[in-house]
Structure formats: structure tokens, C-alpha cells
Write a structure and sequence with these properties.
The chain has 305 residues and is α/β, with parallel strands linked by helices. It has two domains: 10-131, Rossmann fold, CATH 3.40.50; 139-294, Rossmann fold (3-Layer(aba) Sandwich). It is 33% helix and 16% strand. The chain has nine helices and ten strands. It has helices at residues 25-41, 84-92, 157-169, 198-205, 216-224, 240-248, 260-270, 273-289, 293-301; strands at 10-14, 45-47, 73-80, 97-104, 114-119, 139-143, 179-182, 210-213, 229-232, 252-253. Helix 3 (157-169) packs across helix 7. The longest helix has 17 residues, at 25-41. The radius of gyration is 27 Å and the shape is elongated. It starts with 9 loop residues before the first strand and ends with a helix. 34% of the residues are buried. This is Polysaccharide pyruvyl transferase. InterPro entries: Polysacch_pyruvyl_Trfase. Residues 196-233 form the Polysaccharide pyruvyl transferase domain. Keywords: Transferase.
């Protein structure tokens, strides 16, 4: 019995290929697993990435611009194997063998010709995203203050935050930019995604490798828990964040100092072990500085004669 000839060229597609698709981390990891398998098999292939998600990805091809005749097999990787996006790919590459890889089959095989399904076709099998090792990146908490009208025309909140957000997204690192998690010190009840106690806020803070904060208590509570902070004062000339940073002996960036380069440098510094050691020293020093606070409180509660 003769062995089937391998495909001349395979196109790897999925929800990461279509402009109106929803792309998940699992999709991209399953894509990488499929690519690794094709490489191990020695099969020539391209990966189609939508330009709405990866506009400058020179290593991939554009599904909408590529010549369909280049491929005799098209893989659809990950996610539900159903929907108008899947059908559009099937129609565009109607001459090719259309194979689902790591997909959930819902309502039958069509328009696929074959599938290695994770579920919906026999016993379920592990998702192929499990096969792809990924490096760790820093986890950075981002706490941004809302407008503070008590500072009138000195407010520079939008200016500061409009620089900081893209700066964090582009911050260099050995494994790429950090994972940025927005949080707030504001408490609420009945909102499960918002902390309702100080203990919840501080427990969250302790999970971060560093914090970037234009809120006073975002800075203070991070340092209380030994987490280094890129402190930002969003008020022209400095206000309460800068004053508190001075009290704690911690550096702060004022609005005119907030540039992409300065944020990158400050974050790189905050992620060092030296910065963490300095952050751990803040609480003992602050506790010592506040040692006489009860006596001061007693004094101000008594009217002066």
C-alpha cells in the first residue's frame, strides 16, 4: 500500500486569522502547537494572522490577501468549528482539504473534511495549548486616579495616563512586555470584580511584581506590602502623591517627567531585587516615623487655652 504524498503547503488558520474573530491566548498557543507539529513533520506551511490584531507581523500572511492556490491543505486550529468565519475560509479555499485541529465539533463535521477534535467526536482529549511552554513575564498592577477637581487647572491626569498606558504595553523585557492588571483602591459592595475590603486590596497588591500608580493609596499600600512602585503625581507641580512619596523616601514622576522612556526606565528599576529591598524598608521606617502619632492626636483633641 502506497504512502499518501504529503501536502505541498499548508495554511494554518483559526479565529486568529479572521478580522471579526475573537482571539484568545489558547487560540495562539494551539496555533503554535500546530506549527511545531508541522515543523516536526517537515511540512511547508504559512500562518494566517488577521492584520487587525497583528498589523506588522512580517512572519505571517494575510488571509484576505494570500493566493488560495498556494495551499492544498488548510488547518482551522482551536475553538468551535462552526460559524460564518469558518464557512468563509472553507469557501475561499474550496479546492483544499480543510482540517480541524484541536477544535470543538458542534453540530457535525461540515464544512471540515476531517478533524482532530478536542471534544464533540468521541472521547475528549487534552487541549493542545498544554504542549506549548511559555516564558514568565512580570505582572504589573496599574492604579489610576480619576479627575481630582480640588486641583482645578493643575490636573494632568489624562496627559499622564495617555502616556503611561501605551508605555506599559510596549515596555521591553526578556520575554516581552509585562502583563498589566488594572486595579483600584476604591471599594464597592455587590461588584464581584471590585474589592470590598482593604484586606482584598492588599492581598491583590502582594501578587504584583511591581505597581504603577497615580493614586496615593495605590502607592502607599503597595509599599506597605514591599512591592516597588512607579509613582506618578498627575498634578502639575506635584500634590499629595509627591508629598507622600517624599515622606516615604520614594521617587515620583511629575507630569512633565512622564515620557515613554522615563516610564520604561522606572519600571525596569522597579522590577529589580534592589527596588524590592528598598520597598520592604518603607514600612519599618514609616512605622518609626509615626510612633508618636497617638500622643499628637491626644494633643490636638484638647482645646488650646
Amino acid at each position: 500500500m502506497s504512502t499518501p504524498a504529503p501536502p505541498r503547503r499548508v495554511l494554518v488558520t483559526g479565529w486568529f486569522s479572521v478580522p471579526d474573530g475573537e482571539i484568545t491566548a489558547g487560540d495562539l498557543l494551539a496555533r503554535d502547537a500546530a506549527v511545531a507539529h508541522l515543523q516536526a513533520l517537515g511540512v511547508a506551511h504559512d500562518v494566517a494572522m488577521t492584520r487587525t490584531f497583528a498589523p506588522d507581523d512580517a512572519e505571517s500572511v494575510d488571509l484576505l490577501a494570500v493566493d488560495p492556490r498556494r495551499y492544498d491543505v488548510v488547518l482551522w486550529v482551536c475553538g468551535p468549528a462552526r460559524g460564518r468565519q469558518l464557512q468563509r475560509v472553507a469557501d475561499r479555499f474550496a479546492h483544499a482539504r480543510f482540517v480541524g485541529v484541536d477544535v470543538s465539533l458542534v453540530g457535525g463535521l461540515a464544512p471540515l473534511h476531517a478533524a482532530l477534535a478536542r471534544d464533540g467526536d468521541g472521547p475528549p482529549r487534552p487541549d493542545t495549548s498544554l504542549l506549548v511552554p511559555v516564558p514568565a513575564v512580570p505582572v504589573v498592577g496599574l492604579c489610576t486616579a480619576n479627575r481630582q477637581d480640588e486641583y482645578a487647572d493643575r490636573q494632568r491626569h489624562d496627559l499622564v495616563h495617555d502616556v503611561v498606558r501605551p508605555a506599559l504595553a510596549s515596555a521591553p523585557g526578556p520575554a516581552g512586555p509585562p502583563a498589566v492588571v488594572a486595579f483600584d483602591t476604591r471599594l464597592a459592595t455587590g461588584e464581584p470584580h471590585v474589592p470590598s475590603t482593604a484586606a482584598q486590596v492588599e492581598s491583590l497588591l502582594r501578587r504584583f511584581d511591581a505597581v504603577v500608580s497615580s493614586r496615593l493609596h495605590g502607592m502607599v499600600l503597595a509599599l506597605k506590602n514591599g512591592v516597588p512602585v512607579v509613582a506618578l503625581d498627575p498634578v502639575d507641580g506635584g500634590a499629595k502623591v509627591a508629598a507622600q512619596a517624599e515622606a516615604l523616601g520614594w521617587p515620583v514622576l511629575l507630569p512633565h517627567e512622564v515620557t515613554t522612556e522615563r516610564v520604561h526606565a522606572a519600571l525596569a528599576e522597579a522590577l529589580t531585587e534592589e527596588a524590592r529591598e528598598r520597598a520592604r524598608a518603607v514600612l519599618p521606617a514609616a512605622t518609626a516615623a509615626l510612633a508618636g502619632y497617638a500622643d499628637e492626636l491626644a494633643g490636638v483633641m484638647v482645646p488650646r487655652g
